[in-house]
């Protein structure tokens, strides 16, 4: 009797069993190779980073980058934060934003009224950030991050292989059913392919993070972490204040050295019960004025 | 009246700034923006520091012809108790009539009849609120015809008949001078300044020839000049900077407070 594709069911299952594990092997080897490449250490001092925003992106990707821009703009009084963590632009002042990233954060705050810091982070971290390309290029140039293209190549290869294995298995299943052959084992193997796909994803998990620092990149983060201020008093020397952005760049809002601002940006636990005029019939979160209502003139 | 010093209007948008700003001797809160069972954290911190918190109402409509909404007065009284306020205040105006809310502080006709209504409502409010009551002059873009009293006489008789205090808004005096042609100095001469509780200072902007008391722009020098006129007659127990929108940097707010202090120092 002619066998479909010139292979008996038993022969096909043997070959298919081997093929099932091939993408998993590719994922594991790919992750290993990338890790090895990332572990090439080259001397680089964190103080040589062009800006604190480079450090922030290196340490925590886009979300951390936006957090750091917010901290920086708040420190420079281009943004104000209130006790509930809501941001607003100050509208005046002599210090102007320096780069497109800062302008984008200011525009977002203005567009959204008085958004919470977390809303601004969420809104910007998922979208294309102006100026991010330059940061990524410079981090790549200094070999502080693993090129995203490498990681993408491994992920695509693994995904393509599994798609091929599934397609072949399904095609054989259809042929088997049409020839009235037993397909129970093949069905079981197809189920196994799905499980292994999950396994491959786990194996490549290290490749899916937004930013993958190289060993040098990790050393840069560690160096900056050792240098960051843990806490600033309210009357801190102004010379120490630029370090605020570095602290947030490394540890996010929760690492802001100014306790009051930290609590506003990243409440320690549950939202404060006594945080004021939000909700309630007589209250408004965008506090009413002493004018008694709308209009261009107050009179009160 | 106890010496309050120099203060700023507490608003949730600038709560952290106000809490951390140096030289804030007292704050004023819009009473309608507070719950009666708990304080916002920064107000709690200020109270712990001993900073007086003065509730300022905007919705009592004390000059309105309709019966006083005592629930609003009770809310004000409860807020005053919550912050242990030395006094409370609202405006010489009406904000509701015929079931409509104007959203503005509307000027009263300066007639004997309107004064009688205002006095009756103020006395009712005083009977509910446990603390001294201060009433503020407003900025108006129009005046009702057939006035029987000047604004100063109207306020003076209000003070005489109710024993209330005065909250003089020098920015409103300036706005009325610009828009209605009144004379702030003459009005200050007539007012019973010995009943002064404190003073409001605020910024505004001119649009199409009309000065708008916006509380959203920088305080013009002319408003500080009116403050100086007042200080030349009597040193006010307190002066408060009002800012309700387009909040500038902390440094600019602190600068405006410093300007107020300079005026006070010049008349010490």
Automatic annotation (TrEMBL), chain A:
Q: Which InterPro entries match?
A: Ser/Gly_Cys_C_dom (IPR026467)
Q: Where is the composition biased (Gly residues)?
A: 290-300
Instruction: Write out the transmembrane intervals.
Output: 15-34, 159-179, 185-204
| Region Disordered: start-end pairs | 263-300
Return the Low complexity bias intervals. Answer: 274-289
Entry keyword annotation includes Repressor:
no
Q: Which UniProt keywords apply?
A: Membrane, Transmembrane, Transmembrane helix
Q: What is the protein name given in its UniProt record? A: Uncharacterized protein (TIGR04222 family)
The organism's lineage is:
Bacteria, Bacillati, Actinomycetota, Actinomycetes, Pseudonocardiales
From TrEMBL, chain B:
State the superkingdom. Answer: Bacteria
Q: Which InterPro entries match?
A: MbnB/TglH/ChrH (IPR007801), Xyl_isomerase-like_sf (IPR036237)
Question: Which Pfam families does the UniProt entry name for this protein?
Answer: MbnB_TglH_ChrH
Gene3D superfamilies linked: Divalent-metal-dependent TIM barrel enzymes
Q: What is this protein called?
A: Uncharacterized protein
Q: Which organism is it from?
A: Herbihabitans rhizosphaerae
């Amino acid at each position: 009797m002619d066998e479909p594709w010139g292979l008996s069911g038993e022969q096909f299952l043997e070959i298919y069993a081997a093929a099932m594990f091939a993408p998993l092997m590719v994922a594991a080897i790919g992750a290993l190779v990338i890790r090895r490449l990332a572990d090439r250490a080259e001397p680089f001092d964190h103080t040589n980073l062009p800006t604190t925003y480079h450090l922030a992106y290196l340490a925590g990707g886009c979300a951390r980058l936006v957090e750091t821009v917010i901290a920086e703009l708040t420190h420079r009084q281009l943004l104000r934060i209130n006790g509930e963590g809501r941001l607003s632009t100050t509208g005046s002042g002599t210090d102007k934003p320096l780069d497109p990233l800062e302008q984008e954060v200011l525009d977002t705050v203005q567009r959204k009224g008085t958004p919470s810091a977390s809303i601004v982070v969420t809104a910007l971290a998922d979208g294309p950030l102006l100026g991010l390309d330059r940061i990524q290029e410079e981090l790549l140039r200094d070999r502080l991050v693993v090129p995203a293209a490498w990681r993408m190549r491994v992920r695509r290869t693994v995904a393509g292989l599994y798609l091929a294995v599934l397609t072949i298995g399904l095609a054989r299943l259809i042929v088997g059913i049409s020839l009235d052959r037993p397909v129970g084992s093949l069905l079981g193997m197809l189920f196994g392919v799905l499980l292994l796909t999950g396994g491959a994803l786990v194996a490549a998990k290290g490749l899916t993070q937004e930013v993958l620092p190289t060993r040098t990149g990790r050393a840069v983060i560690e160096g900056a972490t050792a240098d960051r201020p843990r806490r600033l008093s309210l009357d801190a020397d102004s010379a120490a204040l630029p370090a605020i952005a570095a602290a947030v760049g490394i540890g996010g809002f929760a690492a802001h050295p100014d306790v009051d601002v930290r609590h506003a940006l990243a409440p320690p636990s549950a939202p404060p019960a006594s945080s004021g005029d939000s909700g309630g019939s007589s209250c408004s979160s965008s506090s009413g004025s002493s004018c008694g209502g709308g209009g261009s003139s107050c009179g009160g | 009246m106890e010496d309050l010093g120099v203060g700023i209007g507490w608003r949730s948008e600038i709560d952290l700034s106000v809490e951390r700003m140096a030289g804030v001797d007292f704050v004023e809160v819009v009473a309608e923006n507070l719950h009666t069972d708990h304080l916002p954290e920064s107000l709690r911190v200020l109270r712990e520091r001993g900073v007086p918190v003065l509730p300022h109402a905007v919705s009592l409509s004390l000059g309105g012809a309709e019966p006083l909404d005592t629930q609003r007065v009770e809310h004000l009284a409860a807020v005053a108790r919550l912050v242990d306020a030395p006094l409370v205040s609202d405006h010489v105006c009406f904000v509701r009539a015929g079931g409509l809310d104007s959203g503005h502080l509307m000027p009263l006709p300066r007639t004997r009849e309107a004064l009688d209504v205002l006095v009756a409502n103020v006395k009712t409010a005083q009977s509910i609120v446990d603390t001294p009551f201060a009433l503020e002059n407003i900025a108006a873009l129009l005046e009702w015809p057939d006035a029987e009293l000047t604004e100063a006489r109207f306020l003076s008789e209000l003070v005489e008949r109710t024993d209330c205090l005065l909250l003089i808004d020098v920015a409103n005096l300036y706005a009325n001078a610009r828009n209605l042609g009144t004379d702030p100095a003459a009005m200050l001469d007539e007012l019973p300044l010995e009943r002064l509780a404190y003073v409001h200072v605020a910024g505004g902007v001119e649009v199409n020839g009309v000065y708008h008391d916006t509380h959203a722009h920088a305080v013009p020098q002319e408003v500080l000049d009116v403050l100086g006129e007042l200080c030349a007659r009597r040193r006010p127990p307190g002066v408060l900077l009002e800012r309700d929108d387009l909040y500038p940097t902390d440094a600019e707010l602190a600068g405006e407070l410093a300007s107020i202090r300079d005026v006070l120092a010049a008349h010490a």
